[in-house]
Design brief:
Elements: H1 12-23, H2 29-35, H3 40-43, E1 47-48, E2 56-57, H4 68-73, H5 82-116, H6 128-138, H7 147-163, H8 177-186, H9 193-203, H10 212-242, E3 248-252, E4 262-267, H11 271-280, H12 284-292, E5 298-303, H13 304-314, E6 318-320, H14 325-330, E7 334-339, H15 347-353, E8 358-361, E9 372-373, H16 381-394, E10 410-414, H17 418-426, H18 434-441, E11 447-451, H19 463-474, E12 477-481, H20 483-490, H21 505-514, E13 519-521, H22 528-541, E14 553-557, H23 563-574, E15 578-581, H24 591-605, E16 609-611, H25 615-633, H26 646-652
Parallel strand pairs: 4-5, 4-7, 5-6, 7-8, 8-9, 11-12, 11-14, 12-13, 14-15, 15-16
Antiparallel strand pairs: 1-2, 3-10
Helix pairs in contact: 5-7, 5-9, 5-10, 5-23, 6-7, 6-10, 9-10, 10-22, 10-23, 11-13, 11-16, 19-20, 19-25
Amino acid sequence: MAEDKTKKSIDAATLEMIDKAGKDHVSTVFDRADSMKPCPIGAEGSCCSNCAMGPCRVPLAKGKTETEDDKKKRRGLRGATAETIAARNFTRKIAAGSAAHSDHGRRVTRHFLETARGHHAGFEIKDEQKLLQLAIELGVKIGDRPNNEIAVEIGEILLNEFGKQEGELLFLKRAPLKRQEIWHKLGIAPRGVDREVVEAMHRTHMGVDQDYPNLLLQGARASLADGWGGSMIATDLQDIMFGTPTPALSTINLGVLKEKEVNIIIHGHEPALAEMLAVVSRDPELVSYAKSKGADGINLAGMCCTANEIMMRHGIPIAGNFLQQELAIITGAVEAMVVDVQCIMQGLSAVANCYHTKLITTDDRAKIEGATHMQFDEANAIESAKAIVKVAIDNFSNRKPGIFIPKHKSELIAGFSHETINYLLGGLFRASYRPLNDNIINGRIRGVAGVVGCNNARVTHDDIHVTLVKELIKNDVLVLLTGCAAMAVAKTGLMVPEGAQYAGEGLRSVCETVGIPPVLHMGSCVDNARILIAATAMVKDGGLGDDISDLPACGAAPEWMSEKAVSIGQYFVSSGIYTLFGVTWPTVGSKDVTDFLFKDMEKMYGGMWDFEPDPIKMAQKMIAHIDKKRKALGIDKARERILYDMAMRRELT
């Protein structure tokens, strides 16, 4: 029987490139997903490899109701229970995800500080207003001091947030007061970003914390160090250095590659390199050099979260999301794929060897066997970026026959930062979330959902993201998107104002009035912190309760695959938001731990985890939660609109 390739992706460009990969005898992640099945014991969180006496496997018996005697028998060599093992594994995922986002945040903070000191030529402070607002928040004196001097003090304060040992993270004070009280009561307010990650790793070491609720408390604290710490710091400082995103029109999918131009793809997560490549790729001298090699020009495109960063700020097109990275090379038209950190497949090296593409690593934290390493030097950023572009240009003449670029591409509008949403709703002088709150209260907008996360080759590429989002907007739920989830939806044409035609009547009327799509692109995965700020702004504008957990709002990562997603999910839960994952769930090997995450956490945080692989059922769960919150707020009943005459107005007074 012929293979049904439509089970691999709903995206036409992706399917075409999978076909080409087969004809070229090139292995991709889709092929490996077919030939290598996941370990069922590891997938359920029932395998412990934390010491050399293991790995110890304590799988849950399938199709059998577990008795207390059965539970006692499910122990590792040292006596660790299935609950301890599952909680340790889950907490370690949070720690790793928090470390990834926070190391990004630390690199951004150091770069910000050196830019302010004048040591990183080519970079500057672009958003003065956000700089000064942050200075006021942090208690930094403004007066008549120059911006760079203010920025140095801000940079030093925020760099200290990573290594701080006592007290609590400064940005926690941005949360509603009731939320802060919950964190203090539970003792999970993070002290310093690095301290919480280290303590999570220590507690999960052999012979340390062996009480699963206590382990999961530390997981919550480490996740908050990500969301309200490393990620939030990264987003703020990136906005100040590179510009706070505003709505920008661009295009997405493999069709953005150009047959007669030098194609360079920037892939990863660190924005400094991407920013500089965006600048130098337009340099007349380099464009002229490309033409001297037979090309018509230079075409820079993004991949994964770096793509989100430079698209929001420069309109640079996006070639694709996580599962399309190998496929871009398979077109045969990519001269260089330039990568830094996170979400970069080692398989890129083998694929690049089948074509003329140069795989260039640029960060000493992330080298790949078989790739060319060209360290990006932020102190000499222009020269570093130009050197990389020249390598790509010189490679143009090495193209092999058989180039095929899919025609598929779609328009999207991105750049809906918290500041932009505030402005669009209220204007320059009355910027506010009040109109959003009012439209939730009057029922035109049912609620708000954040849909975030990666792609996962164990399910049909992009399908769950798109199906879920379509079902949500059809039911008047405004959707906020980041990361690869945003890219999946953008490829379907939902991320332009015309996409409102697929929304319910109430949401559509609001979108058409404001001129926005029914799904808003808010940035990369570190920019999930923008959703926390938006949720807090909704609380502070009034009418929807006094904590994030009161909002008719929820979150989902339908195609998650990385440890970063677990950290993101936990900081949303710890902030009071009902959060669902699809594909698989990493603690099903322990009913007690899973029940704690899915039930007990709601009593503690007002938010909880849930798991649902079916996108329609996931949407139904999210809508039911939103309706439950609307009822609790007393806004579940439709209100008749009354046109008041003068007599009725006098009665009101």
